[in-house]
Amino acid sequence: MAARRTTTKKPNVSKEELLGYYRDMLLIRRFEEKAGQLYGMGLIGGFCHLYIGQEAVVVGLEAAAEEGDKRVTSYRDHGHMLACGMDPKGVMAELTGREGGYSKGKGGSMHMFSKEKHFYGGHGIVGAQVPIGAGLAFSDKYRGDDRVTFTYFGDGAANQGQVYETYNMAELWDLPVIFVIENNQYAMGTSVARSTKSPSLWERGAAYGIPGEEVDGMDVLAVKEAGERAVAQCREGKGPYILEVKTYRYRGHSMSDPAKYRTREEVQKMREERDCIESVRQLLLTGNHATEDELKAIDKEIKDVVNEAAEFSKESPEPALEELWTDIYADVAPQNA
Ligand SMILES: Cc1ncc(C[n+]2csc(CCOP(=O)(O)OP(=O)(O)O)c2C)c(N)n1
Ligand SMILES: [Mg+2]
């Protein structure tokens, strides 16, 4: 049976860990701000889905992960890639469609992978990554690898049929998969209140015998703690776990969304009262773990990393024409008639 837990108690973390989370969340935020700028300059084409506001989700869960664990997510994936240690240069250059990108500039944000970091995309079809995540977990179980797969999806995706088919199989086979519902309150312009009658998404797991819990996604420590519970359950061979992480995206669905379906005040309130980076900053300062100057130095360091990534993503050349015929299933290029 599904069990509800409340995650109010803050776990003890060291100063180094706290500084690490601050740094990792800030990297995602600055990277995304830069990606937004490059998009505005016409250097990133197609869609661009920013993760600003949701940083604590991936950083908290990566803190609970171990080497070799896997992750798969949707198109809103830049944060996931950075949090699992992928190179900001390679990610940004993929966004600008350049040779130095993770898919040689041929994939963009929705077709980017890293075998080394066990990042399996980046999927544009809403919900499609959910069965893929169960499949990854199946492969680990089949091979006897003691690994878990973090399968992220949104509140919108949570209403898809394939999610529930996957829940059933994952529980039936006790797959080591953590279903992370990033409930950022909106699916494009549709609020959860408009799309969903049941107030809780994680509790739907009860119908399949999957336990889970709701987590405050604006609090990186609460996310880490819940992540550790989920990971422990999977590693003990007890099967899947659901984390419904309540979070918020500050920007529109994509760069082309003016977000008219919500008020400026709603966004402003979240930014001012719940921001995940600002709260860790306050914890660091009030706990005397860091001084303003030390935090400024970290801010500068992160800005430099992001600026370097942006420079690289502009300077790296576009893929050569011949690249059109590599990394594809067909092995013969069509001849001109
Ligand atoms: C199968 C499918 N249906 C519709 C779309 C169009 N679409 C893209 S994103 C999106 C909303 C998804 O919202 P959510 O799952 O909450 O993720 P978020 O964007 O909030 O991260 C929709 C309907 C799609 N890409 N795939
Ligand atoms: Mg959503």
From TrEMBL:
Record domain Dehydrogenase E1 component: where: 24-321
Keyword Zinc-finger on entry: no
Keyword field contains Iron-sulfur: no
One term of GO molecular function: pyruvate dehydrogenase (acetyl-transferring) activity
Subunit structure: Heterodimer of an alpha and a beta chain.
Function statement: The pyruvate dehydrogenase complex catalyzes the overall conversion of pyruvate to acetyl-CoA and CO(2). It contains multiple copies of three enzymatic components: pyruvate dehydrogenase (E1), dihydrolipoamide acetyltransferase (E2) and lipoamide dehydrogenase (E3).
Protein name as annotated: Pyruvate dehydrogenase E1 component subunit alpha
Organism annotation: Tropicimonas isoalkanivorans
Gene: pdhA
